[in-house]
Amino acid sequence: MYFTIHLKQFINVKTNEFPFDSQESALIDKLFESLDISKLYWLHGYIQSMIRAKQENTPQSQEQQAMQARSLIPGIHPKMKSLITVLYGTQSGNSRKVASQLFRQLESLGHSARLCDLADFKCREIKSERLIFLVISTQGEGQPPLAAEEFYEYLHGTHVPPLTDLSFAVLSLGDKSYFNYCKTGADVDLRLEQLGAKRLIPRSDCDLDFKKPSEQWINVVIQSLSHVLSQAAPVNRSDARLPEVGLPERNNPVEAIVVNKIRLNGRGSEKYTYHVELELPSDQIAYEPGDSVGIIPANHKSLVSEIIHLLRETPETPVIFGNSSGSLGNVLTNEVELTKLTRENLESYRQFSRDKALNELSQDLNKTSALLQGCTWADLLRLFPGRINAGEFLAIARPIQPRLYSISSSARAYPGEVHITVRQVSYNLHGKEHFGICSTYLADLPETEDRVRIFFETNEVFRLPSDDTDIIMIGPGTGVAPFRAFMQEREDREASGKNWLFFGDWRFTTDFLYQTEWQDWHKKSLLHRIDLAFSRDQKQKIYVQHRLVEKSRDLFKWIENGAKIYVCGDMKNMAQDVNKAFVDIISREGGISVEKAQEYLKTMRKQKRYLEDVY
Amino acid sequence: MSTNKDYNFFGMEDTRKQEVPLTEVEHIKENSRFLRGTIDESLIDNITGALRAADTHLIKFHGSYQQSDRDVESERKKQKLEPLYSFMIRIRVPGGIASPSQFLRIIELGDVYGNGTVKLTSRQAFQLHGVFKHNLKQTIRKINDTLLDTIAACGDVNRNVMCNPLSELSGIHNEVYTDAVRTSIHLTPHTKAYHEIWLDKQLVANTRDEDEEPIYGKTYLPRKFKMAFAIPPDNDVDIYANDLGFIAIKDQGQLAGYNVVVGGGMGMTFGNADTYPRIASNIGFIPKEMVLRVSEEVVKIQRDNGNRSDRKLARLKYTIDRLGLDWFINELQKRLGFKLQPWRPFTFTSNSDRYGWSRTTSGLWHLALFIEGGRIWDSNALQLKKALVEIALIHNGDFRLTGNQNLVIANISSSTKPRITAILNRYGINQASVFTGMRINSLACVALNTCPLAFAEAERYLPSLIDKLEEILKENGLEKESISIRMTGCPNGCARPYIAEIGLVGKSIGHYNLYLGGNTTGSRINVLYRETLNEQQIIGVLSPIFKSFSQERIKNEPFGDFVIRRGIVSEES
Fold it and tell me: Which of 3.30.413.10, 3.40.50.300, 3.40.50.720, 3.40.50.10240 would CATH assign to domain B439-565?
């Protein structure tokens, strides 16, 4: 395993609470140290079931029940700002009305509560919740309202954690003339219990005339709450923090689990951009916004079989490659770089191929560069056939290269997760369709459950400034990824600096990556300005650099005010065009010559106020 | 339990009391500076394809609804994309008459900015669907270039005024049609907001607010207002479903005046017993010269007395039932300064369209075509749009939209007639007589995937349901029987399902309430027969009724009368 944790590290530093004696703790450490991740996952489920079974098999006295009621509310999770969350899932607004009514009563009674639409609720944060009151309606023949669909699916999915710290009550709205009357509420109520949460009061189902029963339910909620809260001793758990751990590095990758994969482009788009959420083996892997994640991909089946064919071998042939051995098929799939060739690869291969053309070509530096562009081993073997067997091939090939992606999540906002934003690359070369190895590898992953080998690469330069500094973010296409992480981080830190995003892509309706998140930040006045350039929504192409120039006056004000500029994305064209646009802006608005403006920008770069993460 | 009266959470209080707060929409209208709101800012806010919330109410007065594609709503939410917002644009065509060049231009705008289709509505208007926000302004401007417009096509105002499109034989069609157009113009909002926002006309300096809306005032009407003109014996405009209807009365071959009906309306809300469809009431006869004054005063009575605290109870029909029909007549007479004359006799024979060829008194030809679901589009099976475009290019008469979502190619000269016939034949566009009587008497609203109110399918689904019902009709020899069937995706009733012989009102995906017993002149509300049926159950329930209808009907007895006579449903008193 990559890092070691001892049970003793989980001692509550404030209370010095630690329930194990040293023998138990040593035994547990010893056992767990030897287990790999998959075994730990098994145990994870096993322990949950064990807890539940033990709870169920112990007959409870009144006294014990009261004890349990007291222990129901273990204090506010450090991430939560209030103890009670009133959630609603609504289509017509009725559930919102009832939830707001409950919320207002809770507030007037001095409870620390928040009101949240399930549409805005971050599902995975449910594990930090302690007390949830949920009002939810049922649509048509038993469907959840659209706004609650994601929550419903999450709750019934395989990645929902046990919710033993949670207490809840559900009010279900519906229409009795439908067969599956109030089904959604009933499902959620049952599911929460299955996940180990404690039901405070029985669910109540309301027909169309929901006024009376919902008021009754609210009354019962308030009563039960005063009972529970008056007995619950406030426990502050915020000190029970886990130890910080370092980042897994390139030579020491860890296995992450794909928990979610979504295509971000809407129906009808030509683009395939994926948002991939990976679950890390620990909540404590504290990468920073601006860092990159390295993915060790696997080669595509079709490419592997073509190469085996060109080598005139079979996939089963046992081979050795570096320190690893296995069948040729497996080794080529997982260990050998097949899509990115180096000059050395070409030079080594030349000796096996007697091809004249290749010989001539290799004299010319420009031509070899052009050839290597996007060229795979299969292309080379096919275009310039030679006598080379599997062993010889493996001797000149290099190990598979990880691909780096700018992380699109903040570890503060999503502890234990890392998100990436990947656009599937495909191109035509030598009359054949080629696919980017890693983007295709990720795009082809199943939506959940698969494991990926990853590591982190820090970027000490592309870092958020102090919280009170303004930032200007320019990230068209997938270049927007780190800025999503920036915004999450700044939201979580309640940073006071202003934020301005420039984003662009092909079409507004389908290619506005993370649209609803930007809208949400904009609505909350966290994203102060956003300018968009969709190149194919009108006849003449509009790109981010055009939007920059349009906003030159305000941009210059921001710059003079100390704003930091971040550019992420395409190196070849975009970064240069953006750079040029800023020279224009500074020259025009500052009333200085182009040369002076270039100096100005150079100084900004030196002062790390103009930062690029381009590729 | 707090009993804080400030919160009207449940909307269930008695809304007739004065102290009940106004609806949110009333405040939006009040603060809109005569329908301007912040629409111009909403249009240039390019972070979203939607308008600001308040502007989504105001845009209706300009003739457009913000909608979203509900087929992709759920998947886009996961994709972190907002709903695929687009706009429906309703184009007013008072009396339903449009020129070939207008017709062509509307089709073209649907192709360039819309989803490539044009919907003919159940109230003689054109509708474009799927126009994105960034194209909205130029689309509306180009519609105005054709001399049609969209103002007041939706919203709490008098909307498109209907008139029978095909009553040439009556000899008074032109006069009644002219009255329809005059009334429409008379009741069009005066606000300059429309011109400023869509046509970039400069704000007129020193316009005093009070001058802007002499009829409506700054909060307009409490709810939509629908008006129609009918020329007996045709009731294809479904006059009784309108807030205000004028039934033309002839005297010695000349137009004498109109019987006036008030308080019709279809909409209701499931689970709200205070809402119901209502047939308009007869209130008397007026001379033809009084039509503008009467329409204006009826609108003003509703303006001053309609319910502005609950939009579900705000139509004129509820105002009349709340205050009494006698009160209404008195109030109207007081405002007019003269008494309504006694109701004059007339007869309606049908609320269906007169399909096929007919000859006008001046020797020209009309052809009334059945347009399924009112949708002009090209499918793989039928290139209806292409055919109609070809016809419009050579046609020198006009086009007429009917209240049954159909299209009349009107005033065809004898020389063009064979060329139009040839185009129809070439594209395989059938005459209505080819279809079953049920299909050509079918109406469906838009519903899914764009209508935000829909619980269920309607336009996209009804044709395939009729396919299945036709098999049973054929087994019983009823395929030529005119049986009206109307389907809506929600209880608001855009396709007027509550006066159909068979009404199907969507409850949830795949499930409908079944109503039976409307009549063939659109003057009787049907009755709820079964609730929440799926397709199999609809067919299962209707099959034995069709069978006994074929065996036990009295000669020429319409289906809707039969189900009442046999007590399958009992007519509501």
Answer: 3.30.413.10
Instruction: Determine, for residues B47 and A518 on separate chains, whether the beta-carbon distance falls below 8 Å.
Output: yes
Angle CA B432–B435–B441, to nearest 5: 75
Q: Which of A485, A259, A530, A266 is nearest to B77 (CA)?
A: A266
Question: Rg of chain A over CA atoms, in angstroms?
Answer: 29
Question: Do A491 and A463 contact (CB within 8 A), yes or no?
Answer: no
pTM for the full predicted model: 0.79
DSSP letter for each residue of A275-292: EEEEE-S-TTB---TT-E
Q: Count of H helices and E strands in chain A?
A: 22, 21
Task: Give yes or no for residue A121 having a pLDDT over 60.
Answer: yes
Q: Is the peptide bond before B233 cis (omega within 30 degrees of 0)?
A: yes
| φ and ψ of B339, to 5 deg | -90, 145
> For the domain with range B158-201+220-351, which CATH number is right: 3.20.20.70, 1.10.150.120, 3.40.1440.10, 3.30.413.10?
3.30.413.10
Could you give the CA distance from residue B135 to residue B138 in angstroms, rounded to a whole number?
A: 6
Pairwise CA distance, residues A210 & A204, whole Å:
10
Residue A381 belongs to what H/E stretch? helix A377-383
At A65 the pLDDT is 41
Q: Which two three-digit tokens encode residue A14? A: 């404030």
Kindly report, residue by residue over A323-335, the tens digit of the pLDDT.
889 999 999 999 9
Record: contact B47-A519, CB cut-off 8 A: yes
Query: For A515, which of B2, B80, B531 is closest by C-beta distance?
Result: B80
Nearest CA in chain B to A262: B79
**Segments making up each domain of chain B, as ranges:** 32-150, 158-201+220-351, 356-434, 439-565
How far off is chain B from A264, nearest CA to CA, in Å? 5
Q: How far is CA A303 from CA A294, A296, A327, A349, in A?
A: 22, 17, 16, 18
First-residue to last-residue Cα distance in chain A = 32
* B12 contact residues in A (CB cutoff 8 A): 209, 211
